[in-house]
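Issue: copy button drops trailing tokens. Both records pasted manually instead:
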Amino acid sequence: MMNENNPHDSLVLEGEERATFVAAEGDRGARIDKFLAESLGESRSFAAKLIEGGMVAVNGKVAAKNYKMSAGDAVEAILPEPELCEALPEDIPLDIIYEDEDIIVVNKPKGMIVHPATGIYTGTLVNALMYHCKDSLSGIGGIIRPGIVHRIDKDTSGLLVVAKNDEAHISLSEQLKTHTVSRVYHAIAVGNIKDDEGTINKPIGRHPSDRKKMAVILDPAQRAREAITHYTVLSRFATPTGRFTYVKCKLETGRTHQIRVHMSCTGHPLVGDTVYGGGNTKFEATNAANIQGQCLHAKCLELIHPKTQEHMHFECELPDSFKVLLEKLQKQSNF
């Protein structure tokens, strides 16, 4: 009789989109559906359906639904076709900071999603880039994410570099992996950050109970990745409606929601970030018109040009709504 705790039968499946993951020591003993759900950023029910449908293999063999992970296990999943088949060009204005035949650097506004996803078909940065660049975007990201090398959240504004050909995409991706791309964000945090500067070095993984959120994960038995944020205080404000800190954050790594999660775990969530603990002060309530999501802006970007190898530095202005908040805090502050 087959042992259901072991994979069985070779995985022979048709399909183009595959996702592969390797289990770490901290994944030992986890059920395959839990491991796969966290790796994909999907629900356990979604992962379970893939497994039950014979669409998941461990070490080259079709996985049993109750398989328990071992360190080093190689997991491969065949993913269903996305509902959205292709991103289409749209005539949407772009704030272009720099452009040549290899890269384009844009200042993304707050509220704009970077690329289409299920249920989101129009109005994204990719739709705008496809109209502006025509066929001059890297194809590595596929038909949904052409040219996209890195992302910032919908309600985060600021600088993004986009690859206009595959060679540039490969170079920029490698720079991101080796941390030679420098990304500096400005933010307004709730509370008084006492140290003038510091480093938050805490691993981040998928939230154990809310798959749409990320969290600091200190338990080695749970899946997490190294995350390092360096911060410098720019200004402090003590107002009748609370204390706040204007801070500069430099990413050493680039995990999903990294700055938002790291600031929240120190007890200083970003102003307006209701997902991670912000949005509860009187100041935020009385200035809601200028706060739509987290108060976070990707202000500075440094990289090595993929072709010329020139060191390049880009900056963009804070959004008007961000400036208004700083002005109000400054006027109200008695520091």
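Record 2 (pasted manually too):
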Amino acid sequence: MKNKKFIDEGYIKFNCKWIDEKLSVEVPQSLKFWRDKLFQLKQIGYDKKLKVGYGNISVRIGKNILISGTQTGSIFPIEDTHFTLVTNYDISKNEVVCRGKLKASSETMTHAAIYQASEDVNAIIHIHNKSLWGHLSNKVPATNKEVAYGTPDMAFEIVRLFNETDVIRKKIIVMKGHEDGIIVFGSNLDDAGNVLLSYL
């Protein structure tokens, strides 16, 4: 059963309205810097055995979300064309509208829920780290182990954590239903990245 769950990793579960076009915004150098740094640290990457990418990164741009595209985990160095602008989303309808040369990351709904939960959050990093995931499992805010990644239920779990825990202060979430999955966030990418480095 565990293998079946694991093969499920990395794939889009929301209804995606994708407009294949050139990005209308400039990709911040800090976004590419942190993504590549995390790739080099093996926190974002590609599982050759399962043939699936893992990890993603985003920033808030106005009312939109600039996020790494789906299945870009194997790419290094990252380029502007590997990011997508999410211009609309509806958690309850499980829908995402994105514009760029790639579809948005499978974790877009989770990123959207965090941005929606706090106006102070402007950057999010999602990584996979088995040992850190196990170590932090009962030490930081965590989602319910029955809730799968990339779903409206996960988005609602994120909202619950913001309402019921001190997650806004700790800036880190363990995804118990998403094996090895950890999210950090901050007011900007340096803030989010340094939260992660402090745990690593």
